Every structure is written in structure tokens, then in C-alpha cells.
Design the sequence.
């Protein structure tokens, strides 16, 4: 948890190899919070009230942009190579494009859900995987797109935007090291217009992506850096992402099925057990994966399911396509080529400015 002049970190991960890098990602994120969130501080969080909920409209910026920079800093410092950083970018793209919740709720509205989602404890079953997308990953995706647009269209960057926010809202501090001026979402838009020297662009960006539900054009923006968004498994049938196998080998749906999926349309939901799929008993992941490999999207397969009351029924499920994507350099994608100018822009984006 970040504090104004310190951070306390605990982790069960090992301090070597892959665990060390994941721990370093946490350090990078929390360290950036000393700059963004603790000093560049949202109006809804200042002064902080320890007895009541502090609602903020801007956690997509405070947490999401910090998430973006936490990973970007590791690339710029040389702890990640390009491929490792692009894996992080891919996760933000997938989260936004595959989330039903993002179609219904804007980043501003998602931020207001923090009291219910960010380490909050509740025993009530919810449908959040259909109604909610974390402001961490949603904000990181927005930071990515905004950075690329500022670089391509206005020959500036998100770095310059954050520096402008620092000058107005972070640098002026009280003797108690609290910000003398906290920002609003309207301030974030105004400063963007100033940095881009285009208030119409800032207004459009906020209207479409911050107050609205429109999905950013990741492919179009990443292409300016010679990067392509390609399917992980082209024309492959998607595995149900909500299933787990218990100790007895029962295939249980542990989360709500997502809107638009074949299971959702067939009325199968959390707590149900998939007993057979395409006539085969499902008691381990290998069997499930093997069946899915035999099929393609739009195939109709018979499923036998048992609900929490023990009632069994047979349904027909239309398989949907695996929509997961990955971000790669165009030079590594068949029939694509990254130009010298695109590679130069990519290098400038990922390079450290430290002297």
C-alpha cells in the first residue's frame, strides 16, 4: 500500500528468477505512486477520510496510468525486453476488448466502484465479470492509447502530460507534504488540451473514452509503432474461462458466464457442473482441451449440465471464437513489415530519457 513518503510491500513470491521480476513490478508501481496519486492527487481523495468512503472519479488515472508506467519503467530500465513488455500490453488490450462490463460502464463510473471491488470483502454473489472492468487495466489501456496518439499526432508524449500535471498539482505542497491543489477530471481534460495544444482533441478523447464506453482503437494506434494485434489462436473455439476442477474431478463453473458466450446463451451459469461435452465425460482439463481442439467456432455441441440443486438437463451450445490477441512487432508477423520510421518511433517510446 502506497503512502506519501513510504511504501509497505509484502509478497509470498520468491525473491529469485520470475518471482523477483513480479516483485519488482509491484515496487515499480508503488514507487510511481509517490508521484501519481500521493502528490498528484485527486480531489475525491484529499483530505482523506479514514471513517467514510472516499469516492473518486479518477482512479482510472491514479491507478491505471500508474499501472501503465509501472510496466513501462521496467522496460525503459532494461528489466523487461520488448517481448515481455508487449505481453503486458496484450493483457490490457485483451481485458478491454473481452470485457462485457466495459460496454456498460465508463472509466469514471468504474472508479466509483472502488469501495466494493478494491480489497473490499463481501460474501454476496455478484455478476461483476459482466458488469465491471478494473480501473487498473482499463486505465493502463487508456494511458497506452493516449501516449501513442500524443506521439503520433502532436509530437509530444504522455511523459509531457504527466510533467504538466506535476507542475500544477504535484509540485506545490504544504509544510505537511500534502498537495495544495487537488485535481478533478475536468482538470485532467484541460491539461491534456494544453499539452496537445488541441482542446477539441482532449474533449473528444474524454467524451469517447473517459465519460463514454467506446473501445480504444488499439490496433490502429499500435500500428504507428510497427506493432500488430494478432489472434493468439486464429479460428479456434474458445475454452470456457470460468471452469475449475474440484478434488473429485467435477468441472464446475466458478464464475458467471460472460455475456455473448455459448454457455451464457444456453443458460449455463456459476455453480453449474458440466458433466459431458460432445458426448464425453469431462473430469480433467486435458479432456476439455482435447474436445475443443476438434471443433471450430460456430460448431453446435451437446452439453449435459447439472445445476446446484442437482437437476440435470441436456442443452446445445454454440461454440464461440477465442478472441484473445497478442501484440507483436510487425517484423515478426507473416506478410507484415515494420518501416524504419515505425521502429524509430517505437525505440523512442521504449527508451529511457535518463542521462
Sequence:
Amino acid at each position: 500500500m502506497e503512502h506519501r513518503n513510504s511504501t509497505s510491500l509484502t509478497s509470498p513470491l520468491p525473491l529469485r528468477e520470475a518471482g523477483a521480476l513480479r516483485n519488482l513490478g509491484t515496487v515499480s508501481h508503488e514507487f510511481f505512486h509517490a508521484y501519481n496519486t500521493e502528490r498528484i492527487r485527486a480531489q475525491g481523495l484529499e483530505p482523506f477520510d479514514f471513517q467514510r468512503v472516499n469516492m473518486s472519479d479518477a482512479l482510472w488515472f491514479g491507478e491505471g496510468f500508474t499501472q501503465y508506467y509501472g510496466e513501462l519503467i521496467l522496460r525503459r530500465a532494461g528489466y523487461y525486453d520488448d517481448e515481455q513488455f508487449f505481453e503486458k500490453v496484450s493483457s490490457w488490450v485483451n481485458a478491454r476488448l473481452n470485457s462485457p462490463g466495459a460496454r456498460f460502464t465508463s472509466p469514471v463510473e468504474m472508479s466509483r466502484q472502488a469501495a466494493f471491488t478494491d480489497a473490499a470483502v463481501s460474501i454476496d454473489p455478484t455478476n461483476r465479470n459482466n458488469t465491471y472492468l478494473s480501473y487498473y487495466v482499463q486505465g493502463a489501456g487508456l494511458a497506452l492509447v493516449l501516449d501513442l496518439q500524443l506521439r503520433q499526432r502532436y509530437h509530444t508524449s504522455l511523459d509531457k502530460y504527466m510533467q504538466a500535471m506535476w507542475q500544477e498539482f504535484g509540485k506545490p505542497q504544504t509544510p505537511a507534504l500534502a498537495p495544495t491543489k487537488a485535481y478533478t477530471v475536468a482538470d485532467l481534460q484541460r491539461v491534456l488540451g494544453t499539452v496537445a495544444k488541441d482542446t477539441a482533441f482532449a474533449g473528444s478523447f474524454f467524451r469517447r473514452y473517459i465519460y463514454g464506453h467506446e473501445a480504444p482503437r488499439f490496433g490502429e494506434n499500435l500500428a504507428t509503432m510497427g506493432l500488430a494485434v494478432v489472434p493468439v489462436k486464429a479460428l479456434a473455439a474458445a475454452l470456457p474461462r470460468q471452469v475449475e476442477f474440484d478434488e473429485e474431478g467435477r468441472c464446475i463453473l466458478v464464475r458467471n458466464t460472460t455475456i455473448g458466450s455459448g454457455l451464457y446463451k444456453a443458460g449455463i451459469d456459476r455453480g453449474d457442473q458440466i458433466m459431458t461435452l460432445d458426448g464425453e465425460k469431462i473430469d480433467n482439463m486435458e479432456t476439455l482441451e482435447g474436445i475443443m481442439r476438434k471443433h471450430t467456432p460456430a460448431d453446435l455441441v451437446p452439453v449435459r449440465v447439472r445445476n446446484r440443486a442437482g437437476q440435470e438437463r441436456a442443452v446445445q451450445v454454440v461454440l464461440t471464437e477465442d478472441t484473445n490477441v497478442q501484440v507483436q512487432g510487425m517484423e515478426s508477423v507473416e506478410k507484415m513489415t515494420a518501416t524504419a520510421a515505425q521502429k524509430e518511433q517505437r525505440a523512442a517510446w521504449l527508451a529511457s530519457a535518463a542521462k
